[in-house]
């Protein structure tokens, strides 16, 4: 009997033990259907728009007592090796096809980014690191029931969180952080604690990804319907004889373009869980947003809500590439240094990094790509030119240059820093009335001087790590820190610095090499757009449950907290 079969039997026994005997095990969910199969009109107790990191645990929880419809604009993650396998991590982000699980967008700042378009949401695209928010964050967020928060984290962790294997390169980063003064050592833990720790991962010991979609195993299959390729166009309102508009339905289309409607039964609710890009976008498309902006687009104003789309933030990421004379393992994020000055230090490594293991668009066999995984130009992570110069032509040029590099150039790793918060904020606006189109978003990276100062301190800490005795084996002694900075600024096009002072002026380095770590948030924040119970202010029957409600990104990496919040 195979290991996977034993795992499935164990899960079935576990669910029966905890009272979920009716549950099913991924990927054989009977409640997964294509939107083309849905009737023209249907009725449910609850409707959730967005089957992502928050939407899946929310749907699983509500289905224990109520009938639930979960609308997901993307497809299933199951059977897509680019999503499932750690070694193919970068391929999904590089896939620009219309059915890709990743939808690329470019902020008005010029930084290339991505949003999820798949059941499981961002947990299908990310680097897998799993860590909880700090107790201080939980308190500031207004989650007063600490016991419920911890129980909800544990509920998530039983299915999707694992302890990563600590091999040579990640161990060197861990020891280097400690030697550089990021202390104490807190061992393996999900908790957010100052110092250096090994965090959790959603990749199991076989390198297979487990996503928020796996949490649907907790659902009651007789009460849950999940429609794939179901693009919500707008929320429908009951305006007759009411003091406030009430959300009572959703207009959506299937992949053939056929329109359908789903309504909530009396006393039911609709929840937006479409992410920091999708939730404010859908509110505005539905008539809830700044009156002047809606009027410009010809949208009937249901509620003049000027704070929809405001407070958008994306945690800036900057990194240093360190070529290695010794072989290194393929690894994504496993270790983190949580500093007291407001920067998180993490790292990724590998021969060809975590990329090129499969083909584009779902696992078709193809020659291994020459790339740098999480930091590849194919994924939009092009720090070789300042943000607004990161054009498709620049990406193509960088890929060509990379393909001409010697194979040894791909051996090594990136040590990165992510700024806490951040304090810099921007806004989101509609570009078109098509829900499939990306809205316009501005993050204003480093507009707050404290964010820039924290980036500089983070880079200085990385420099210390690289020069530690613990990291000696994985760096060339003849390559100076200044040379590494110059390589990173122009990598992989050439080894000449873009600015003459980049290697000496770390503020310029931070601005020139800023990338996303895909932790953007805001747009429907608590106290501005939703109340403390996540009800949309000014209407009835509508909530928002996702990262758009956050003022700051929780913990070092947000997915654990978003899944907890959905639960």
UniProtKB/TrEMBL annotation:
Residues 275-289 form the Glucose-methanol-choline oxidoreductase N-terminal domain. PROSITE patterns: GMC_OXRED_2. The keyword Signal applies. Its cofactor is FAD. Disulfide bonds join 455-510. Keywords: Disulfide bond, FAD, Flavoprotein, Signal. Residues 1-23 form the signal peptide. FAD binds at residues 118, 518-519, 547, 558-559. It holds the Pfam family GMC_oxred_N. InterPro entries: FAD/NAD-bd_sf, GMC_Oxidoreductase-Related, GMC_OxRdtase, GMC_OxRdtase_N, GMC_OxRtase_C. It comes from the Eukaryota. GO terms for molecular function: flavin adenine dinucleotide binding; oxidoreductase activity, acting on CH-OH group of donors. Belongs to the GMC oxidoreductase family. PANTHER family: OS04G0573100 PROTEIN (PTHR45968:SF3), OSJNBA0019K04.7 PROTEIN (PTHR45968). This is Glucose-methanol-choline oxidoreductase N-terminal domain-containing protein. It comes from Dendrobium chrysotoxum. The lineage of its organism: Eukaryota, Viridiplantae, Streptophyta, Embryophyta, Tracheophyta.
